[in-house]
Write a sequence for this structure.
């Protein structure tokens, strides 16, 4: 067997290693959250929608503007827990603005601890949550405090990921989407309801990943192996 044929096998293995590293799950770390361009009650644009938030009336669409100057929403993932946290300006959606007297800066906190796994989605593994009512949070302002829980839809209550070129509803990048329930006693499960369009719908950008995607290491392996093959050829 010639040197060229001997070199082909390790080279293919190295390329496979590089490609497999690129097809990663969403990285552990922190993300800034923004409005999604394709919300069904847009404008005004939003990253969270909770219909009937204060009254239970589904015709009152409450939306929360993650891009507002008073908003600062983040998502963090440590390998086992997804935490969505921060403040967002919002109120009852009136078309291109909000209903007078319904707006506030809301404090939002939600933790997904149960049912988190990953799933291939267009070449990248998304984080998904399969837990109906097992994860909790809250939203509060001077208008009141309302408890939140997750609501499964087709087996998945929340999904966070990048469709890797396929895009999610017109956004080709990292998005988060998933159904929610809300009520005055949602944690106790006695006054918790799901109104059809109450859900997360945001985009995200990484800020300070704790565990970066290890592409540089794979490229180093690739480069050093190529140099080694060149050295072997020269010796022969």
């Amino acid at each position: 067997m010639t040197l060229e044929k001997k070199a082909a096998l390790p080279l293919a293995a190295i390329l496979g290693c590089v490609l497999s590293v690129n097809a990663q799950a969403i990285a552990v770390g922190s993300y800034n959250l923004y409005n999604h361009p394709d919300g069904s009650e847009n404008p005004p644009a939003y990253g969270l929608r909770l219909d009937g938030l204060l009254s239970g009336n589904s015709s009152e669409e409450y939306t929360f503007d993650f891009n507002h100057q008073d908003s600062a929403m983040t998502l963090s993932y440590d390998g086992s827990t997804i935490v969505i946290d921060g403040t967002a300006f919002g109120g009852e959606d009136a078309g291109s603005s909000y209903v007078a007297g319904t707006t506030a800066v809301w404090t939002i906190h939600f933790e997904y601890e149960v049912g988190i796994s990953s799933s291939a989605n267009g070449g990248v593994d998304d984080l998904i949550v399969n837990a109906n009512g097992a994860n909790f949070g809250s939203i509060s302002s001077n208008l009141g405090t309302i408890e939140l829980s997750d609501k499964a839809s087709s087996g998945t209550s929340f999904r966070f990921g990048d469709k890797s070129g396929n895009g999610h509803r017109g956004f080709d990048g990292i998005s988060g989407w998933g159904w929610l329930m809300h009520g005055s006693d949602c944690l106790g499960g006695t006054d918790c309801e799901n109104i059809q369009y109450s859900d997360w719908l945001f985009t995200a950008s990484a800020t300070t990943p704790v565990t970066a995607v290890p592409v540089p290491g794979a490229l180093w392996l690739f480069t050093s192996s190529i140099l080694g093959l060149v050295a072997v050829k020269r010796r022969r």
Notes: The chain has two domains: 1-24+215-236, 29-212. The mean pLDDT is 78. The helical segments are 3-22, 215-235.
